[in-house]
């Protein structure tokens, strides 16, 4: 791996689980602190993804600096893929460096946020205090000086039609519902389990997920789990 593949502002951390590159600006974030100290962030969520994939691909968003990716790449079933999405370009660069440095070929990181339709969005990457939000970067409906113009994709369009999806895990800072709205073709076709940090409203769930047979089936760390199987 060449030096130009590692972001200049990234801090390298070698752990038992792999080599990570964490943005200096995000070292204060809980996930970054955990991984830099050799730990695993949200291990129950990772385990739930692996147990519920049911032989299919895993969709994971947002990637942050790729903290989950080395573990997922080593433990998914042969022939399956992990599709990861990250809209913060600094984080995306670090996640890509993690894949390259660890020789990971069964994971793809896509520089985009998730939405109902492909387009553009305003991503807030800095808080009102001027501190980088890192993995807490979030899309807002009104652009301002703390946002950057960022690509959006729908999962229906981003995931090849010939891939079977086993589980969708979303930690997208309140945009879980638009992300799921853009995955309805996948949900109808494959009935993947769903793991979300922010749950959809009861009304949206009843109109969109309940007719497909989805029910809440558990929790993983702070995430809710839904299953139609």
Tags for this entry?
alpha/beta; 7-stranded mixed sheet; 4-stranded mixed sheet; 8 helices; 229 residues
Structure description:
The N and C termini lie far apart (42 Å). Strands 5-4-3-10-11-13-12 form a seven-stranded mixed β-sheet. A four-stranded mixed β-sheet has the order 6-9-7-8. The longest helix is centred in the middle third of the chain and has 13 residues, at 89-101. By secondary structure, it is α/β, with parallel strands linked by helices. It is built from eight helices and 13 strands.
In short:
By secondary structure, the protein is α/β, with parallel strands linked by helices. The chain has helices spanning 30-36, 43-52, 69-75, 89-101, 155-158, 176-181, 184-190, 202-208, and strands at 10-15, 18-23, 57-61, 82-85, 107-110, 113-114, 119-124, 138-140, 147-153, 165-170, 193-196, 215-220, 223-227.
**Biggest sheet: strands side by side, in what order?**
5-4-3-10-11-13-12
- Please report the number of helical segments: 8
Percentage of residues in DSSP E strands: 25-35%
Shape: globular
- Radius of gyration equals 17 Å
- The N- and C-terminal alpha carbons lie at a distance of 42 Å
* Secondary structure: helix percent: 25-40%
The tally of beta strands, per DSSP, is: 13
By helix and strand content, what is the structural category?
alpha/beta
Order of helices and strands: EEHHEHEHEEEEEHEHHEHEE
Largest sheet: 7 strands, mixed
Give the mean pLDDT: 91
Low-confidence runs (pLDDT<50, min 5 residues)? Answer: none
């Amino acid at each position: 791996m060449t030096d130009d593949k590692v972001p200049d502002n990234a801090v390298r951390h070698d752990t038992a689980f792999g080599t990570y590159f964490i943005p200096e600006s995000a070292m204060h974030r809980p996930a970054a602190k955990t991984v830099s100290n050799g730990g695993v962030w949200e291990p129950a969520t990772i385990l739930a993804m692996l147990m519920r994939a049911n032989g299919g691909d895993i969709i994971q968003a947002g990637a942050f600096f790729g903290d989950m990716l080395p573990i997922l790449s080593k433990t998914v079933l042969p022939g399956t893929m992990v599709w990861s999405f990250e809209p913060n370009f600094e984080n995306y660069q670090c996640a890509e460096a993690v894949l390259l440095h660890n020789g990971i070929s069964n994971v793809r990181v896509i520089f985009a946020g998730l939405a109902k339709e492909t387009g553009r969005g305003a991503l807030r990457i800095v808080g009102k205090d001027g501190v980088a939000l890192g993995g807490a970067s979030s899309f807002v409906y009104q652009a301002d000086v703390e946002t950057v113009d960022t690509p959006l994709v729908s999962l229906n369009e981003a995931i090849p039609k010939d891939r079977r999806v086993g589980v969708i895990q979303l930690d997208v800072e309140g945009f879980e519902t638009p992300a799921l709205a853009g995955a309805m073709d996948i949900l109808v076709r494959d009935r993947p389990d769903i793991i979300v940090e922010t749950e959809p409203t009861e009304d949206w769930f009843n109109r969109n997920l309940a007719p497909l047979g989805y029910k809440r089936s558990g929790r993983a760390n702070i995430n809710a789990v839904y299953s139609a199987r």
